[in-house]
Amino acid sequence: MKKITAILLCIILTTALCACGQKETENNAPVSDNGETTEGQDKEEPEETEETDEQSGTEKEDYSFAVIVPTTGNEYFQGEIDALQATMDEYGYPLNVISYDMNADKQVSSVENLVTMNVDAALVFPMDKESIDSACKTAMDGGVKIISGGIELDNMDALYNTDQKEAGNTIAGMACDYIKETYGDESVEVAMLINTSNSNMVTRCDAMKETLEKECPNAVLVKEIEAVDTETGMNAAENVIQANPDVKVFICVNDTVALGVVEAYKAANISDIAVFGSDGTSEGIKKIANGDSLKGTIAFGSLTLGDYLLKLAKGEEVEELISPPIIRITEENVADYVTE
To answer: Is the Cβ–Cβ distance between 326 and 162 less than 8 Å?
Structure first.
């Protein structure tokens, strides 16, 4: 498009210059079409037009960016904000941080307002596809580039998402390694805390079950319980302690519910339990480092999302799926990930 615009401008300018050259007399006085001189007559001033960065070929320098999150009171989302802020500070670009506070209507208006805020590119973490897709279309029609975090949309430039199948395989894989090393071929009862509230978590949990069945034929899955936070994780573990006292391993969808399991078994004064989670939270990593019953978690390697946003703002192409690498964290390497 830039090349076409530049060619058209060149044609217009060349035509205008040639016309001027053809209608000048030897004394350089302009003449009209009937051959009379027009020197001294009033001349129309050409209308001034504002030249855009795209037309002039210069690179825009005043980019503006945004990140829209469900809440800022969550360690994961705050980590994403901090990482983006660090990148934008380095480049000298403003970052608008917007929380829609788990409110669907506020989520929609936050995305639609990106146009009036003159935002060039934004990272958006949707609640769900249905409530936000049309708002993203409105923003994109207004020139905003969109990276969707976690949920694939019809209207987006790129998807930032974990490979949930790989995540589930890795969580259960750590548990299987522990079972093999600790119990060999002995039959072992296992409980699993799952979350089926959205398609991403369903994919992760299905992979957890598949890997356990494939890699640990001696593992017996005696309980699957829905859990979404530390409290429901603790309640689930308390039920297992009463109903299935022989469970030796918990495989959990994330660290938040895994920490509830750890606390429930600690309160019951039971140490013969191994728990595995996900998301590499600072509290989870501390538990592993301290030798608690949380034996492993997975973290997601760093991606400089700010660079992807900047590329989109400049009109450059990025891959359709932006996926961070998955890192296993166990007692063997936890020292590399502990923060003060």
So the answer is: yes
Residue 68 near residue 110, CB atoms below 8 Å: yes
Residue 289 covered by a domain: yes
Residues 204 and 232 in one domain: yes
User: Which stretch of DSSP H or E encloses residue 222?
Assistant: strand 219-226
Domain that holds residue 112: 65-160+305-324
The distance of Cα 17 from the centroid of its chain, to the nearest Å, equals 52
Which residues does 333 contact at the CB level (< 8 Å), separation at least 6?
none
pTM (global) more than 0.85: no
The conformational region for residue 118 under phi > 0 = left, psi -120 to 50 = alpha, else beta, is: left
Q: What are phi and psi of 128, to 5 degrees?
A: -160, 165
Burial class (CB in 10 A: 0-12, 13-18, 19+), 282: middle
Q: Judge if 250 and 265 occupy the same domain.
A: yes
Count: domains in the chain: 2
- Which residues, 6+ apart, have CB-to-CB distance to 231 below 8 Å? 260
Per the prediction, the chain carries an average pLDDT of 85
Considering the domain architecture, whether residues 169 and 153 belong to the same structural domain is answered as no
**Residue-wise over 143-172: b if at least 16 C-beta within 10 A, else e?**
ebbbbbbbbebebbbbbbbbbbebbbbbbb
Give tens-digit pLDDT for 309-339: 999 999 999 999 999 999 999 999 999 999 8
Name the amino acid, one letter, at 151. Answer: I
Query: Domain for residue 22, yes or no?
Result: no
Q: What's the CATH number where 217 sits?
A: 3.40.50.2300
Kindly state whether residues 155 and 170 are assigned to the same domain: no
> Same domain, yes or no, for 196 and 278?
yes
Rounded average pLDDT over 22-37: 38
What separation in angstroms does the CA of 308 have from each of 34, 147, 211? 60, 9, 33
Q: Are residues 201 and 248 in the same domain?
A: yes
- Side chain identity at 55, as an amino acid letter? Q
